[in-house]
Amino acid sequence: TMDLDLGDDQLALRDGIAALLEGRFGSDRIRAGFDRTVFDAVRAMADHPDELELALWFHDAVYDVHAHDNEARSAAWAVYALDDAGLPAALGERVAALVMATAGHGQADAADTQLLLDIDLAILGAPPPRFVEYERQIRAEYGHVPAGVFEQKRKEVLQGFLGREWALRLGLAR
Can you give the pTM of this predicted structure? Predict the structure, then answer.
Protein backbone atom coordinates (compact mmCIF):
# COMPACT_ATOMS: atom_id res chain seq x y z
CA THR A 1 0.00 0.00 0.00
CA MET A 2 1.03 3.59 -0.33
CA ASP A 3 -0.14 6.93 0.91
CA LEU A 4 -2.70 8.75 -1.12
CA ASP A 5 -1.08 11.33 -3.32
CA LEU A 6 -3.99 13.62 -3.93
CA GLY A 7 -2.12 16.91 -3.74
CA ASP A 8 -4.58 19.78 -3.55
CA ASP A 9 -7.46 17.32 -3.86
CA GLN A 10 -6.65 15.81 -0.46
CA LEU A 11 -8.19 18.65 1.52
CA ALA A 12 -11.18 18.70 -0.80
CA LEU A 13 -11.66 14.95 -0.29
CA ARG A 14 -11.33 15.30 3.49
CA ASP A 15 -13.79 18.19 3.53
CA GLY A 16 -16.17 16.28 1.27
CA ILE A 17 -16.13 13.21 3.48
CA ALA A 18 -16.57 15.35 6.60
CA ALA A 19 -19.54 17.15 5.03
CA LEU A 20 -21.06 13.85 3.93
CA LEU A 21 -20.79 12.33 7.40
CA GLU A 22 -21.91 15.50 9.19
CA GLY A 23 -24.89 15.81 6.86
CA ARG A 24 -25.98 12.28 7.62
CA PHE A 25 -25.17 12.04 11.32
CA GLY A 26 -24.83 15.59 12.63
CA SER A 27 -21.69 17.47 13.52
CA ASP A 28 -21.77 16.61 17.23
CA ARG A 29 -21.73 12.86 16.58
CA ILE A 30 -18.95 13.15 13.99
CA ARG A 31 -16.83 15.45 16.15
CA ALA A 32 -17.13 12.92 18.96
CA GLY A 33 -15.91 10.18 16.61
CA PHE A 34 -12.21 10.71 17.15
CA ASP A 35 -9.87 13.21 18.70
CA ARG A 36 -8.29 15.14 15.86
CA THR A 37 -5.48 16.44 18.08
CA VAL A 38 -4.47 12.88 19.01
CA PHE A 39 -4.45 11.86 15.35
CA ASP A 40 -2.43 14.92 14.34
CA ALA A 41 0.10 14.18 17.11
CA VAL A 42 0.72 10.63 15.87
CA ARG A 43 0.15 11.02 12.13
CA ALA A 44 3.87 10.71 11.46
CA MET A 45 3.91 7.32 13.22
CA ALA A 46 1.47 5.83 10.73
CA ASP A 47 2.67 3.74 7.81
CA HIS A 48 -0.31 4.96 5.77
CA PRO A 49 -1.64 8.09 7.48
CA ASP A 50 -4.25 8.90 4.85
CA GLU A 51 -5.80 5.45 5.08
CA LEU A 52 -5.72 5.69 8.87
CA GLU A 53 -7.46 9.05 8.75
CA LEU A 54 -10.14 7.75 6.42
CA ALA A 55 -10.71 4.78 8.73
CA LEU A 56 -11.07 7.16 11.68
CA TRP A 57 -13.65 9.19 9.79
CA PHE A 58 -15.65 6.11 8.85
CA HIS A 59 -15.24 3.87 11.90
CA ASP A 60 -18.43 5.10 13.58
CA ALA A 61 -20.15 6.38 10.45
CA VAL A 62 -22.99 3.92 11.01
CA TYR A 63 -23.86 3.98 14.68
CA ASP A 64 -27.02 2.48 16.04
CA VAL A 65 -26.96 1.63 19.75
CA HIS A 66 -29.47 -1.15 19.08
CA ALA A 67 -27.39 -2.84 16.36
CA HIS A 68 -24.47 -5.22 16.57
CA ASP A 69 -23.13 -4.73 13.06
CA ASN A 70 -22.20 -1.05 13.13
CA GLU A 71 -18.57 -1.65 12.15
CA ALA A 72 -19.52 -3.92 9.24
CA ARG A 73 -22.03 -1.37 7.99
CA SER A 74 -19.51 1.46 8.45
CA ALA A 75 -16.86 -0.53 6.58
CA ALA A 76 -19.26 -1.25 3.73
CA TRP A 77 -20.18 2.40 3.51
CA ALA A 78 -16.49 3.38 3.44
CA VAL A 79 -15.93 1.03 0.48
CA TYR A 80 -18.94 2.48 -1.32
CA ALA A 81 -18.14 6.15 -0.58
CA LEU A 82 -14.47 5.88 -1.51
CA ASP A 83 -15.34 4.05 -4.71
CA ASP A 84 -17.95 6.71 -5.47
CA ALA A 85 -15.24 9.34 -4.96
CA GLY A 86 -13.21 7.63 -7.69
CA LEU A 87 -10.56 6.17 -5.40
CA PRO A 88 -9.07 2.72 -6.01
CA ALA A 89 -11.10 -0.26 -4.78
CA ALA A 90 -8.04 -1.59 -2.94
CA LEU A 91 -7.97 1.59 -0.86
CA GLY A 92 -11.59 1.12 0.14
CA GLU A 93 -10.87 -2.46 1.17
CA ARG A 94 -7.87 -1.43 3.30
CA VAL A 95 -9.90 1.31 4.99
CA ALA A 96 -12.73 -1.17 5.56
CA ALA A 97 -10.30 -3.64 7.18
CA LEU A 98 -9.14 -0.91 9.56
CA VAL A 99 -12.73 -0.01 10.40
CA MET A 100 -13.49 -3.67 11.13
CA ALA A 101 -10.59 -3.78 13.62
CA THR A 102 -12.62 -1.49 15.89
CA ALA A 103 -15.35 -4.13 16.22
CA GLY A 104 -13.77 -5.90 19.16
CA HIS A 105 -10.63 -3.91 19.80
CA GLY A 106 -8.74 -7.20 19.67
CA GLN A 107 -5.10 -7.83 18.99
CA ALA A 108 -3.60 -5.75 16.23
CA ASP A 109 -0.77 -7.04 14.11
CA ALA A 110 -0.13 -3.92 12.04
CA ALA A 111 1.13 -0.56 13.28
CA ASP A 112 -1.70 1.41 11.68
CA THR A 113 -4.28 -0.87 13.28
CA GLN A 114 -2.59 -0.34 16.66
CA LEU A 115 -2.68 3.41 16.12
CA LEU A 116 -6.34 3.30 15.09
CA LEU A 117 -7.34 1.36 18.20
CA ASP A 118 -5.28 3.61 20.46
CA ILE A 119 -6.78 6.75 18.93
CA ASP A 120 -10.25 5.25 19.31
CA LEU A 121 -9.58 4.55 23.00
CA ALA A 122 -7.65 7.77 23.68
CA ILE A 123 -10.73 9.21 25.37
CA LEU A 124 -9.94 6.90 28.30
CA GLY A 125 -6.91 9.08 29.00
CA ALA A 126 -8.57 12.43 28.36
CA PRO A 127 -8.51 15.14 31.02
CA PRO A 128 -11.32 14.57 33.53
CA PRO A 129 -13.63 17.34 32.24
CA ARG A 130 -13.50 15.93 28.69
CA PHE A 131 -13.97 12.37 29.91
CA VAL A 132 -17.00 13.41 32.00
CA GLU A 133 -18.46 15.14 28.91
CA TYR A 134 -17.85 11.99 26.86
CA GLU A 135 -19.56 9.84 29.47
CA ARG A 136 -22.56 12.21 29.37
CA GLN A 137 -22.68 11.78 25.60
CA ILE A 138 -22.59 8.00 25.94
CA ARG A 139 -25.33 8.08 28.58
CA ALA A 140 -27.50 10.24 26.30
CA GLU A 141 -27.05 7.74 23.46
CA TYR A 142 -28.20 4.96 25.76
CA GLY A 143 -30.98 6.99 27.38
CA HIS A 144 -33.42 4.15 26.74
CA VAL A 145 -31.47 1.87 29.11
CA PRO A 146 -32.46 2.00 32.80
CA ALA A 147 -29.85 3.81 34.91
CA GLY A 148 -28.84 0.82 37.03
CA VAL A 149 -28.40 -1.45 34.03
CA PHE A 150 -26.48 1.23 32.13
CA GLU A 151 -24.11 1.89 35.04
CA GLN A 152 -23.34 -1.81 35.49
CA LYS A 153 -22.78 -2.44 31.76
CA ARG A 154 -20.73 0.73 31.33
CA LYS A 155 -18.55 -0.27 34.27
CA GLU A 156 -18.01 -3.69 32.67
CA VAL A 157 -17.04 -2.12 29.33
CA LEU A 158 -14.56 0.30 30.88
CA GLN A 159 -13.05 -2.34 33.15
CA GLY A 160 -12.74 -4.62 30.16
CA PHE A 161 -10.74 -2.04 28.24
CA LEU A 162 -8.56 -1.07 31.17
CA GLY A 163 -7.97 -4.66 32.19
CA ARG A 164 -6.52 -5.71 28.85
CA GLU A 165 -2.76 -5.93 28.85
CA TRP A 166 -2.62 -4.57 25.31
CA ALA A 167 -5.01 -1.65 25.90
CA LEU A 168 -3.47 1.59 24.71
CA ARG A 169 -0.45 -0.26 23.30
CA LEU A 170 1.30 2.82 22.09
CA GLY A 171 0.76 4.83 25.26
CA LEU A 172 -1.22 7.55 23.50
CA ALA A 173 -3.73 7.92 26.29
CA ARG A 174 -1.93 6.68 29.36
Answer: 0.77
